[in-house]
Amino acid sequence: MDSSERSEHTEPSDPVTQLQLTPELREIHDKVLRTVRCLVADLCQQYDGGHPGSAMGMAALGLALYKYVMCYSPGNPRYFNRDRLVLSNGHACLWQYVYMHVVGFPTMTMEHLRSYHSSDRGSICPGHPEIQFDGIEVSTGPLGQGVGNAVGLAIASRHLSATYNKPHHNVLDHMIWCVVGDGCLQEGVSLEAIQLAGHWKLDNLAILYDNNGVTCAGTVDLTTSEDVNARMEACGWQVVDVVDGVDNISRLVEVLLYAQHNRQKPTFVNVRTIIGYGAWFQGKNEAHGNPLGVDGVANLKRQLGMNPKTHFHIDEDVYRFFADVGPAGRAREARFAKEVKAYGQSYPVLAQEFVERMEGRWNTHWQHLLPAKKDLPSSKVASRVSAGEIIALLAQHLPQVMVTSCDLQPTTNMSWPTSKAFQCPVHDTTSGTTSGDYTGRYLHCGVREHAMAAIANGLAAFNAGTVLPFTSAFLMFYGYAVPAVRMGALQGLRIIHLATHDSIAIGYDGPTHQPVEIASLFRAMPNLLYIRPCDGEETCGAFMVAVAAEKASSVISLSRHGLVQYPQYSSRGGVGRGAYVFIEELKADITLIGVGSEMVFAVEARKKLAERGFKARIVSFPCQRLFEAESRQYRETVMQYDQNKPVVIIEAYAVNGWERYADAGYSMHTFGKSLPPEDQVYEFFGFEANCIASKLQDLIAEVNQSGIRSLRGDFRDLNVRFV
Amino acid sequence: MDSSERSEHTEPSDPVTQLQLTPELREIHDKVLRTVRCLVADLCQQYDGGHPGSAMGMAALGLALYKYVMCYSPGNPRYFNRDRLVLSNGHACLWQYVYMHVVGFPTMTMEHLRSYHSSDRGSICPGHPEIQFDGIEVSTGPLGQGVGNAVGLAIASRHLSATYNKPHHNVLDHMIWCVVGDGCLQEGVSLEAIQLAGHWKLDNLAILYDNNGVTCAGTVDLTTSEDVNARMEACGWQVVDVVDGVDNISRLVEVLLYAQHNRQKPTFVNVRTIIGYGAWFQGKNEAHGNPLGVDGVANLKRQLGMNPKTHFHIDEDVYRFFADVGPAGRAREARFAKEVKAYGQSYPVLAQEFVERMEGRWNTHWQHLLPAKKDLPSSKVASRVSAGEIIALLAQHLPQVMVTSCDLQPTTNMSWPTSKAFQCPVHDTTSGTTSGDYTGRYLHCGVREHAMAAIANGLAAFNAGTVLPFTSAFLMFYGYAVPAVRMGALQGLRIIHLATHDSIAIGYDGPTHQPVEIASLFRAMPNLLYIRPCDGEETCGAFMVAVAAEKASSVISLSRHGLVQYPQYSSRGGVGRGAYVFIEELKADITLIGVGSEMVFAVEARKKLAERGFKARIVSFPCQRLFEAESRQYRETVMQYDQNKPVVIIEAYAVNGWERYADAGYSMHTFGKSLPPEDQVYEFFGFEANCIASKLQDLIAEVNQSGIRSLRGDFRDLNVRFV
Fold first, then answer.
1. Which of A124, A674, A721, B353 is 20 to 30 Å from B719 at the Cα level?
2. Which of B144, B223, B518 comes nearest A445 by C-beta?
3. Which residues from chain B sit within 8 angstroms of residue A187, using beta carbons?
4. What is the DSSP string of B545-576?
5. Is the pLDDT assigned to residue A552 strictly greater than 50?
């Protein structure tokens, strides 16, 4: 059932510019739509693949946005005050590429457009939009992510305008447009993000729903019966319908301008379209991911009154129709520059900070804010506490810092004394204690890890260096956010995930909360630094690395329980090299790799071995990816494989990946167990110094007898009996 | 704002049993509530930890369910026709444990109850409910999962009753109750599952919302402003409010019976409660996860008119109050047995199948259904196609098989000619082609991977062996489902995930769709078999292993593109051993590990090496976990480390974990690239036989010169230049 039949909605009531449709305008609109649809068909047919359906269906929406509504400057895709467009249904990328071409994005030439699906390795038109190319705000493809990204962009925008705009100085004022398909509105990440955007009343955000009623598998009613408009209203959005979204340009313009000018809630524009409009498979799921066929393309063109013999053709008058977009953009840029200048005269200090943030420049001395080693506590302290203190420092000195949190902030600890919540100023909580406004930099995301991480991607993508987003949750629950964490790393976005409660020592909560295998994923994920510090000093090092990694995401993995501090051994600089010698020992019998919470077992086992007459050296190994970036010489110095002594990793995680460095492991082979925290749960799995020392002693004896060669290809799981 | 202020809802209108509240009944109800609340407080105080808040708040709901509403038999927790209760807010487990004790679940003695949070390794009262203990339907803890599980249980129940119930033989008729907290309703997985349950009109399902308005971080309005009732109605649920859920037993009973008897839609019961009711921190977020303190417990007891000096005390009349529950359960069991017997007389064939399914017995000869090797195609075939044929066979011969799918079924290919959709019979789709009813075994889940996997957990947890659930999606998009896949493996549920499009060869779709690191997670995840077959024969082996693994989950990893078939080398039996010799070669210079789609590169590189005068043997390695379960002797026979020749893994994934077996790798170090499928994208990353052979030749030369020892601790990433 079409949801329009069930819900009645407010019509646009604000006075907005009505498009005066002259016959000439009607004619050129029609021509543009026909041209775009045929071009999309040609581009898919060219290499016999691609996604024509939604690109063809949304042609009118593209015209309305790129010609009449969006505030941008094609000549300068990074123009700071631009509207940002997220194509969450990324498979429809041709729609975006084609409009970017006709409005004149300099890089989007016809030649590049035609590289879609080609073997051209330098193509800027991949199968889904990718952030590294001009005019693309975020990479999309995995459905639903774009909604979270758009919410993040809207937060960044709203936060900046609340922080810097002043009376008579409305410096920043732009919209975030998020185009979604049916699939995007089924993914949990978008449902979470929609709840949050409604809560925060992000009125600078509009979702434009390409409601074609068809997904890959068939009609949407195969899997969905909800009244989407009613659901959006229940979540705090205003809803507007466009019944004839395939061609009613004036209605689209009216509605989009309404979304732009109405300032109360985010807007959901339910645009009824027809997938593959005009083609033989229009309205069918075949239109989603199949080319039309040679005859299909020819028939489409004939039907639309276009010449079936010409391909990739755009009439001059189509280019001419969009010719004013470039100059309008340049004028917009000039006005903005003037605004910024005037603002600087009225508010010189704020303006300086604003300009620095626009340029992504920072106080480069932030590292000096970190406590010196001598000032760190020497008694046991949880690394979540060490990290919380650093966050407090960073947040107070760097306006770029924004921290998102998933409900557990009383235990993740990533807050600071003067932190203020990002909230709609008119929103009052029952508890009252946590009110805030849009200048707040602490984002309470509820129990929505996936949306949190997708929002962080949007915060980082807003503009390089303008916002430095941190997320925080239990390491285990980053499992909920995997696709968003991945998209951050894939896009080279500087996002720092603060993952607490990172060991089985969480205890009572049991195996559902003990993250034994999550680190394996993050260590394997390209362009992500998974850093697991063993004490406060290494936690400083972890932040130094993560904040400095401009083009990578990081996960800093932190303990719930108090950790022994090792000021005599640990080194923040060492963290930057991935691994370093923690305790050296000449003519050692064995090298132990200690990591994070389990460093204590390496150190204690070493003592037990010493009592038994064996010498163990210890390597601290907080980050595999950083170590791999070091020289072979450095790596050999640290690991000393040439000594032909065994190397053993001690970590209460699945051992996968450590075999690169170690011959044996003391690790986890099950999901864990609910037992009292720290010692008892560790002990259950054999993490106890005497127990470990005995196993190590046996290994040393074997190697002394049979040589190190006996271990090759026979990695020893020393505590596997605990399976 | 309380959502009750905004939405008006239908009151229960069906005639349902009204509880006649005598003064005596009022008195004992009150005593039970006071007893339960004090007991929960004692149990948390005992070891100074735990989650008292929601357990105390929901005391009345527990009384209503366990005494008056739920159809179950405490003496036989596995009674087949029982109502099933899922505690999605698993931290409230004490609520469940306490009621299980008072109604007389045999294992839940007071001694066991008191083992909550103790160091007792044999405790059946862990910090979150765990499936292996009597009376627990599913393990919960990670929020939102339980909602998906409950939808799965409701599907299994509805499917079985549609398949086996007949006129005058209403054999199966029970409810699924899902208790949720505020957090559960924020997680995307529950939002997805709620959409699906509404779509399927699962009227045997009720969500009981412990609406206490407080989460760990504060009041819920800190992060949520939605009108939850309106949202649930938009999703196709009927909504009932209980305003005074802390103590209004008769209202609760009335509403729950209404949910049980009303048969149109799933029911959402919005129960307003007060977290930590009666305690000093009632209504505050401190109540979520903190004990009351010694004084707090004493004060609670005084306030409730209980004796502050007694602990863990339950009056005899409380036990007496629940004493009829056991006998009622036994009577219920007897009625069910009689029903089944009568059914058997009327429908002997169906009844036999029904009894077999209740007992989890199967046609054990299903393996003979698989095509013999000689009957498999010899030309190129995608393993998604090979797998699709096996699914078709299994589904047609085993009524246990249910297949869930996330929108992509036209490409995942996991359907069969006579497959029927699981749909509400009164539901018609626009396309018409895909109508179905509740006997259907194909579940269209839309673009909701996370709910799909959580639903599969519920299907498997319904009863061991009654349903054999398969899920299907692109491997990349199992990233969306990580927490649910994990919960399946953690609970030892036999669920088989069919993960297609498992290599970078997916091509055009680009890095967002190329699953380079997902396998690392699944290989590290305990109790999960990640199996990546290289051709149709190995695909048969993968199914044999996965279907036979009664207490483990599996991911079968399948290609989109056509794979060369290797009937002369590949072996279904070999898959069961994890790895096996694919091509033997005496006095080989090198061992190559080939896996899945990339086996072809091992075989082709071997040919190139032969042309250059080198001998390579090949090991096929579809499953690491199975190989680890083999004897050391078998492993050595396969890998032949004693020959001191290098071992190289060739796989287009992150290499993490392969270092256990290999000295060098041809692998992926980035997220991939959008290029035409198969050869071009492979070639971009150096996967090309000549290129590989040259690298291998260099490695052989080095080892011949310096010995195998030179490779120790110096794993070689042979194509890392492609970073």
1. A124
2. B223
3. 188, 192, 447-448, 480
4. HHHH-TT-EEEEE--SSEE---TTT--HHHHH
5. yes
Query: Does one domain contain both B602 and B549?
Result: no
Quote the pLDDT of residue B410: 75
Find the closest chain B residue to A515 by CA distance. Answer: B525
pLDDT at residue A435 greater than cutoff 90: no
Residue B268's H or E segment, with its range, is strand B267-272
For the record, the structure tokens of A367 come out as 């590292």
Q: How far is CA B588 from CA A360, B627, B710, in A?
A: 57, 22, 19
Interchain CB distance below 8 Å, A508 and B142: no
Assess whether pLDDT exceeds 90 at residue A115: yes
**Which stretches in chain B have pLDDT values below 70?**
1-17, 427-434, 721-723
CB–CB of A195 and B130 under 8 A?
A: no
Q: Is B472 on the interface with A (CB under 8 A)?
A: no
Q: Does B521 touch chain A (CB under 8 A)?
A: yes
Nearest to A409 among B192, B217, B517 (CB): B217
- Mean pLDDT for A302-329 is 97
Angstrom distance (rounded) from CA B575 to CA B630: 12
Read off the pLDDT of each residue in A168-196 and give the average, rounded to a whole number.
Answer: 97
Do B64 and B181 have their domain in common?
Answer: yes
CA distance B553 to chain A (A): 14
Residue among A6, A177, A20 nearest A88 (CA): A177
Which CATH number characterizes residue B408's domain?
3.40.50.970
CB-closest option in A141, A213, A511 to B510: A141
Nearest CA in chain B to A451: B188
DSSP B365: G
pLDDT at A3 over 50: no
Of A277, A304, A330, the residue at which a domain comes to its end is: A330
Are the beta carbons of B713 and A647 separated by less than 8 Å?
Answer: yes
C-alpha separations of B23 from B16, B30, B253, B314, B324 in Å: 21, 11, 17, 21, 19
Q: What pairs with residue A401 in β-bridges?
A: A468
| A250 assigned to some structural domain | yes
pLDDT of residue B10: 45
Confidence of residue A500 (pLDDT cuts 50, 70, 90): very high
Average pLDDT over residues A611-639: 97
Q: Give the count of beta carbons closer than 10 Å to the beta carbon of residue A361.
A: 13
The Cα B723–Cα B717 span in angstroms is: 11
Note whether A247 and A300 are same-domain residues. Answer: yes
Domain-located, residue B571: no
CATH number of the domain encompassing residue B680: 3.40.50.920
Which of A196, A451, A656 lies nearest to residue B520, judging by beta carbons?
A656
Using a CB-CB cut-off of 8 Å, the residues of chain A touching B490 are: 511-512, 671
Residues of A marked as catalytic:
449
Q: Cβ contact (<8 Å) for A217 and B639?
A: no
Q: How confident is the model at residue A17 (pLDDT cuts 50, 70, 90)?
A: low
Would you tell me how many other CB atoms lie within 10 Å of the CB of residue B446? Answer: 25
Minimum CA–CA partner of A227 in chain B:
B234
- A196 contacts on B by Cβ (under 8 Å): 223
Global pTM reads 0.97
Number of domains in chain A: 3
Among A119, A236, A510, select the one facing B675 at the smallest CB separation: A119
Distance from CA of A314 to the nearest CA of B (A): 25
To the nearest 10°, report the CA torsion of B453, B458, B464, B470.
Answer: -30
Average pLDDT for A603-617: 98
Radius of gyration of chain B (CA): 29
Closest chain B C-alpha to A234 CA, distance in angstroms? 5
A interface test, pick of B201, B445, B660, B685 with most A CB neighbours within 10 Å: B660
pLDDT at residue B434, as a whole number: 56
Residue B683 structural domain? 578-722
